[in-house]
Design brief:
Layout lengths: L6 H4 L15 E2 L11 H9 L14 H11 L6 E4 L1 H14 L5 E4 L5 H9 L3 E4 L9 H4 L7 E5 L11 H10 L4 E5 L20 E6 L12 E5 L1 H14 L6 H12 L1 H24 L3 E2 L6 E5 L5 H10 L2 E2 L1 E2 L9 E4 L3 H14 L2
């Protein structure tokens, strides 16, 4: 531990990302899309004039935000973009949740939330999932002083998604603080809450280009909400990094948003493969939680999660194992191509024999 670190850094427990191996494996551990980005992405990169790289990008990312606004039927003033949704979430913590009051959050959810809370000194008020491994919306809406509410829909790593009616019921109860709905996985079968931002000025929806648009290597995320909330994010951004999205990322993001045919084909393929994989896991005796994401969360009553994780790794297949008391028997399995999932199931049939 360095003597030069600040007390805040000494107390941090950083987020641990999924393993990025150098050897050739079947990689089902980080929820990446198995299909390539839209064809227009390759064309845009090939035609990009490299001389433009000597210039700073547009600090407002206006062209990208205009395309994003058109795609979601909102105004440009209701959009924000950043270097991946994690950066957007970090800005949101600073803009809305550093208020000296607890932030309501599910006890099992995206593991970056507690990292940000620790970094910014935000107290988390954690609410257990219900008996069906679902986010307890009534608990999140319970009375009490708070700095806000944040949850992922679909939830990570469990995969369950709430319908819009449940989210609206929460918004009708929590009116004085920001409710942030993290929709990193929404395109794989859930309903987006973006349609409600005109009715609820305290609703902020975040999303990413990493999953359904196959751009995890680019780092591009967004937020959609009332112009008041977007201005709060911009104030933080302009106090931290006034040029967050580079010219290439903006160009690629625009091409990805424009190609709705490719987008629909890829996500529909993932959904179909997810459901086939779920059925095959259940035939092997797994308990598989209902998922509206591009992954499955599963456990077997007679085989420990750690042993299955190790056995798959020996066979060149990576999945995610969360070594925590509540989740140590579960595996999170990213949905890959049909061939990759066939290899995964064949390995599981051997391990569970």
């Amino acid at each position: 531990m360095s003597q030069y670190w600040s007390p805040a850094v000494r107390d941090l427990t950083p987020y641990i990302p999924g393993e990025q191996p150098r050897e050739r494996v079947i990689k089902l551990n980080t929820n990446e899309n198995p299909y390539p980005p839209a064809p227009g992405v390759s064309q845009a990169l090939a035609q990009y004039p490299t001389d433009h790289l000597r210039l700073y990008p547009d600090p407002t990312s206006l062209a990208l935000r205009e395309t994003l606004a058109s795609r979601y039927g909102v105004s440009v003033a209701e959009t924000f973009v950043g270097n991946g949704s994690d950066e957007v979430l970090a800005f949101a913590f600073q803009a809305f949740f550093c208020q000296g009051a607890p932030l309501d959050v599910p006890s099992i959810t995206y593991s970056f939330y507690p990292v940000y809370a620790n970094l910014y000194g935000v107290e988390l008020r954690k609410h257990p999932l219900n008996a069906q491994w679902e986010v307890d919306m009534d608990a999140l809406a319970s009375a009490g002083e708070r700095s806000g509410v944040i949850f992922a829909n679909p939830n990570a790593p469990t995969g369950h998604a709430h319908p819009l009616e449940a989210i609206e019921a929460l918004l009708q109860k929590v009116t004085d603080r920001v409710v942030l709905v993290d929709e990193a996985y929404v395109d794989f079968g859930a309903d987006s809450a973006v349609s409600m931002i005109s009715r609820y000025p305290n609703l902020l929806v975040t999303g990413t280009f990493s999953k359904s648009r196959s751009l995890a290597g680019l780092r591009l995320g967004y937020a959609i909400g009332s112009s008041e909330l977007i201005e709060g994010l911009q104030r933080v951004k302009d106090s931290f990094n006034s040029y967050p999205v580079d010219s290439l990322a903006s160009l690629v993001g625009i091409e990805a948003l424009k190609d709705t045919e490719h987008f629909d084909a890829c996500r529909n393929n993932v959904i179909a493969t997810r459901e086939r994989t779920r059925q095959r896991l259940e035939r092997l005796g797994f308990e598989v939680l209902p998922s509206k994401a591009n992954f499955l969360f599963a456990q077997h009553p007679h085989h420990e999660g750690a042993q299955l994780f190790a056995g798959l790794r020996e066979r060149g297949i990576l999945v995610r194992h969360f070594n925590t008391e509540a989740l140590n028997n579960f595996l999170r399995i990213t949905i890959g191509t049909d061939d990759e999932m066939d290899s995964f199931i064949e390995a599981m049939e051997t391990l569970c024999a």
